[in-house]
TrEMBL record, chain A:
Organism per entry: Microbaculum marinum
One Pfam assignment: Fer2_2
Highest taxon, organism lineage: Bacteria
GO molecular function, one term: 2 iron, 2 sulfur cluster binding
Boundaries of every [2Fe-2S]-binding domain copy: 83-162
Record protein name field: 2Fe-2S iron-sulfur cluster-binding protein
Xref: InterPro entries: 2Fe-2S-bd (IPR002888), 2Fe-2S-bd_dom_sf (IPR036884), 2Fe-2S_ferredoxin-like_sf (IPR036010), Aldehyde_Oxdr_Iron-Sulfur (IPR052914), Beta-grasp_dom_sf (IPR012675)
Automatic annotation (TrEMBL), chain B:
Domain Aldehyde oxidase/xanthine dehydrogenase first molybdopterin binding per the UniProt entry, residue ranges: 257-476
Single GO molecular function: iron ion binding
Name of the protein described by the UniProt record: Molybdopterin cofactor-binding domain-containing protein
Top-rank lineage group of the source organism: Bacteria
Residues covered by the Aldehyde oxidase/xanthine dehydrogenase second molybdopterin binding domain: 503-844
Entries under Gene3D superfamilies matching the protein: Aldehyde oxidase/xanthine dehydrogenase, a/b hammerhead, Aldehyde oxidase/xanthine dehydrogenase, molybdopterin binding domain
Amino acid sequence: MDTIDLDFTLNGERVSRSGIDADMMLVDFLREDLGLTGTKFCCGIAVCRVCTVSLARVPGAHEVAIRACTTPLSDINGQVVTTVEGLEDDNGLHPLQQAFLDNFSFQCGYCCPGFLMGAYALLDRLKRQPIPAEAVDAAIADAVGEHICRCTGYVRYYRAIRQVVLDTPGLVT
Amino acid sequence: MKTTRREFLATTVAGLAISVSPIHLLRPVAGSNEAKAATVAPPPDWQAGPGKARFRIDGLRKVTGRKTYARDFHARDLEGWPDEQDVVLVMRTPVANRTFHGLDLGRLPQALQPKSTITAEDLARDHIGIAEDDYPEGDYLLPAGKVPDYLGQEVALLYYDDFFTMDKARRAIRSDVLQGLSFGEEMPIRPETYYQPETSIIHAEPENGDEQTFSQVGGGPVRPEEARTPRDIEAMGWVDRIREMIASSEERGWTTLHRTYETQVIDPMFMEPESGLAWLDRETATLHMLIGTQSPSYDVTAAAEIFAGPLCRIGVRKVNFLAAYPGGGFGGRDTSILCLFLALAAAYSDRPVQIINDRFEQFQAGMKRHASRCDLSMAVDKDRKFRALRNYIYLNGGGRRNVSTFVAQVSGINGTGPYGVPYVDIWSRALKTRAITAGSIRAFGAVQSQFAIETMVDELAAEIGVDPIALRRANVLLEGEAVDTGAPNAPPGLPEMCDRAAAHRLWRERDARHAAAAGSDVAYGVGFAITMKNYGTGADAALDEVAIDPDGRITVTTNVIDMGNGSATTLAIATATHLGANATEVKTGYLDPFEALQLEQSFEMQPDNPRWTPLIHESTKASSTSSKWVHGVEQACSVLLASGLLPAARELWGAGAEGVSVADIRWEDGALAADGRQAIPLPALARQAHEKGHVVSAMIHAFYSGRWIEADYTIGAETHRWQIDALSVRRGGQTGRDLIDRKNAKLFTVESTYEGNGQSFGACACLASVTVNRRTGEVRLDEAVHYLGPGKVRQQDLLEGQLDGCFAMGLGQALLEDIPAYEDGGGDGLWNLHRYNVPLARDVGLGRVEKVILPPESDDAPARGIAEVGMIPIPPAIANAVAHATGVRFRQLPITPERVRAAWRG
């Protein structure tokens, strides 16, 4: 077993571990080691997107949605990871969280953190590179179109994300 | 037929005490990230005024990633549990046609070897019992020397100290051809048999008469093939006559078609693979379990039963069950076998154990939707009226019976679709095969039989040259007409749905658009289907308690589970009808408190026993909350109002208010008002009720089969009639409860669930247009209209969300989802979402699916269960659209590009 000294930033806090299995998947580390179970496990083969978290190379860099179920810890060393637990701040819920609530976007809720983090990375992209309003639907499909939801038929997730994109200043040209 | 143990879940099993409650003992945690993992109370702003929710009452914990699902919990999270846990890998067989020789873990690296292993020999030595009378073989772990009963049958329990090692071992074992097992030579495949009992529904209603000559209503269920009773023999006479009628269709001027329709195995594919925790505390001989389940009462009972035998060497005196929110259910977590393996795993460890399926295991072990074949004959006369129908339904139940016979019953009940047919012969049977066990997956039984009916109706329409919707319109049932059992329970809305669809742009333009697409890359077609389905079981029981504290905060406690369908939210807003305010807390998944009702159950009526009820409790069904449990909550609220808050109000209003009755009062902005009197806010009433010893908690049991049991209850000097069969109250200042005996009860009983005639039905239809790529054969949804007759709507957002989910799942069944039933299917342990295609957002026509929700047919229309019927018309509507587009009739689901191309090739 190859081991590494793990050192990365998780939800704004430094996480360090010595001699940890380099091949351990991020989702397992989060859930089983740290007890941070907001990031979910479903297929384990990077199809369903339930385990999506956001990754940035350094603080302030582009946020990229990745699948934690197939991302080994060796790939996130030194980087900045945001999970659903990191979305709230002192002002309360993230606008995406509030919109998901207000739109009854989820039912069982198991796929919710994945949709949140996929949409979170989308917002970051649009902040840096706003798009015309007519391109929003395609951008949402690009961001979360591969995510699986079994309960709600996607309608209310898309509605909520669209609402946040359009209501957030600076995302749409 | 008497029901199996599944419907009779007692609170004790052979002396073992049983307890069910939600997760309430979370260990407090510290630390910035971990602190957020603690449980949270619902935020106060979830409400949008009395009777309405701004968002789901369980929404905040889900949207913030708090620990919610069984998979989120470790033993260390639970108060009173040891910190350390074992993680147990359940080995399963990938083959079912070879003799099992034993484990073969030699190729597993030393570091991945289990620290201990439990096999069938251990269970036999310790006299582990059989929990289910539907699996008399009782081989919960496959013994060496036997051919597996079914693919994916469990073989051994492998114990590990931690998740990571178990998970690596799991992957390594999966990569082995025989997955760590040793088998002998190939054996003949065991012949298929039928699970008993089989379902027959025979209906005969002579022409021009309103009298039913023969029906289930008219004397109970029949088994013509058994010929045990005169009615069975009479029924067989009708079977013969209907066969003769169909055979002589031509002479009668009828057009009759004989067709076979098939549907596939479906995995419910709820998002959270099953997992759970168990711990046998040997000091107290208490088995603790934590599972996200639809059927906690089944789980806890089954777990208790395997240790209940007199010779059993595992000491268990009590089972304490903690119910977690399920990460999706769709019926796949109803009477799942996971509970047994958790119990067994715990029995052989000194520490808590965790079983935590990955998706490959879930496909291998999780319950499936029954694959089906319907051999259907249907006759229509020259006046476009359906005359006779014979539907022989075969459902692949897999290796354990589970609830397959009930699925067959439901398939039969819905075996004529939403039509009035004078002569009906339905024979619905579940097969015992080597397939993965099939369960009660969403809209079970009805999806299969109504795909056949609704495809057949289109074929008949084409055969006689009439518009398919017009043919349906001429035959759909009117509200209150007899369904195929003879019960007068047809839902409203069927004719209206036909009329609306016929007038819709999609239908009116279908031929023009079909013709216009002739020269393009894609063929275009439009199809329609209309369906109905029973909701509930026909014998439904609800347990609810509503309590109010001195500050006016309302708490609902119930045995129902929220699978994501919104039960908790719906019950929270249900209190507003009588109490003018929503509940601030809903405790789902409780069973223990309701022991206060001291109920005794049997399907034989005990009129002199005030504790008797036909059924104490049942598993949670998505289609039941809005109708059954809401009724219970509203009845409890009515008790609380009449016996707690109104007496308090009279006292506060003072002299002259003694005569104010329930009929005189109303809620205005959270205050109780009566003409000429000052409105009193709810908290003031609650405080008065507590101080003066009025009723502050009402706990009820209600039973429904076509109607509710009702009775008079006297509290203090007042007697009220409520639609409940048991009542217990707690008064202000008291800690104990008082049982209120029912009087003048309008009792009844039923023979069993599903075979009674107390089912309520809901209606749903779908108009769909598709395109079919002429080169690839790929079918894409173009547009759709989804019609629903829900009756009273409790919360529009929850209803629409369910409907959207139904549409997606129906589309998956029509076009995408498929898994072989046998050797190359999920049982081989190699299936996951790379091979099993569930609909994505791009598949479901986002923004192009119109919902038409019919208004309630009356002011007192019931809230109908819709979470199952909502998906049933989707597959046949799409199949009919594909037939219109391609000119080829598809009688087998799913309609894949390969099948379309093959059909085009001829």
